[in-house]
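Q: Can I see a sequence and its folded structure?
A: Here is a first one.
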Amino acid sequence: MLAGALARDGMAVTVFESRPAVRAGAFLFLDDRGHDALEGLGVARDRLYAASQPVSTIRVEYAPGPVRSRPSNHRMYLRADLMGVLTEFAASTPAEFHYDTPIADLDLESRTLCGDSTRFAADELIIAADGIDSRARNHLEPERTPEYAGQVVVYGRTDKPLQPDTEPSVLHFNGQIDETVSPTPAFGHIWNDSISVWFARITREQLAAADIGIQPVAPWVGAVESTAPAISDTIDLLLANTETAHFSNARNVPFARAEPPHPGLILCGDADHAITPAAGVGARDAIEDAAALHRALREGTSPTEAMAARRQQIDAERRQATPPGRSRRS
């Protein structure tokens, strides 16, 4: 999306992407801030809405606490559908894309990107949006590594749309408050006439690398049920109609002690400040990074100063945020 926006403004942009053009994965939620930023980059809002599902309300019930509900301006995306819209947008611009081209190393002195069997010269600024295991960040700050956030996250989609005994188009969060367990386990789900998806955050030791990705759900039924015992019937219905799910370790990339943004190599999104999915803002943070960089490069101001300002904003917002089911003092 950033490459497409810059290319539309007449800048020469080359993108090296390690994966295919559109890829499968889990699902995510974006609020109005994320959509506003994408629209500012040039992505049509109607295309985004057509590829997503509305979320009318966010409902939180962590027993034995009270039920809390608030209107929502979020939309739910299957990750592949969002990537399809963004790839379509970028492909309509003069930006040059090289898919299935991972960058294994880089040399800032000679401004050279090194692929598995090829070397590429970088004429200007290098922007690294290479994710939570960023090789660019490892090059700049080898000590700033991802930290396990204490939970395994599971994303599931039922084999056919279901209608549980809950309200449609509502993002339901459920959990069981236990002062001896931190972070708080949780189960969430949302459904409408065309789709039903669910997720679980299970507090436990992290998964081995071989267990990350698409895995059978059956061995995990008990662990998922334990996240929200009060709604076991709903959980059982969803799991009984889900054969496989996506499993991952929730991780953070702290930036409280990060080096200042490098003038020749800018870290963007998860490469700089990944946060556990429990916060629900990782995708929006990355999109707003892209918007800030686009604005700086279009206006001829400093992209390093733009990213320094983004870090300050993100840090302030994270300090104020309270994850569902947690009191501010916890």
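Q: Show me another, different protein.
A: A second, unrelated one:
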Amino acid sequence: MSEVTFYFDFSSPYGYLAAERIDAFVDRTGITANWRPFMIGAAFKQTGQSPLLSQPIRGDYFKRDMERCAKLQNTPFHIPANFPYSALTPTRAFYWIASTKPATAIKFAKDIYRGYFADGLDMSDPETVFATATRHSIDAGDLRRAVENPKWKQHVRKVTDEAIAHGAFGSPFFFYEDEAFFGNDRLEQLEHWIKLHNQTNG
């Protein structure tokens, strides 16, 4: 198998950090990464989780951990003022763009992440999302209509349901065949697992 499914939420700090590293992972492994944004809030409802920074004791630790991980991988990062947010608009936008321009959709996803976690842009404001898309020669009016289209609303619900059914309970979540890996810090383990798999089946 030559594909890893990369589930993430656009409000996820660790999803952002993984998105900044996954190209190098792809280059090293030759594995295709299938980018699949989903709505992590739906998973939280089923598992009884809450956003990390709102959790007593754990929240302080994870704030420092996010900052430390970003520094160690040399990725610009700060916790946005409106963290977390419901990333419906960028998620719907991603799939509409990906339906015709998958490579552009990935570039758009990276810009959404960087705009939010590096530049302090308010991605909960749909107009900020549309403005980000115009940098990739996407018409803001077309995108504005697309994110209100029931087709893309339903598509995001479907992907989210599929992610949860598959076992994704957080972001980022990676699947390679029947193996699940949770977290930005599992990319190296995933890479090692793929190498072992190829040796065993080679």
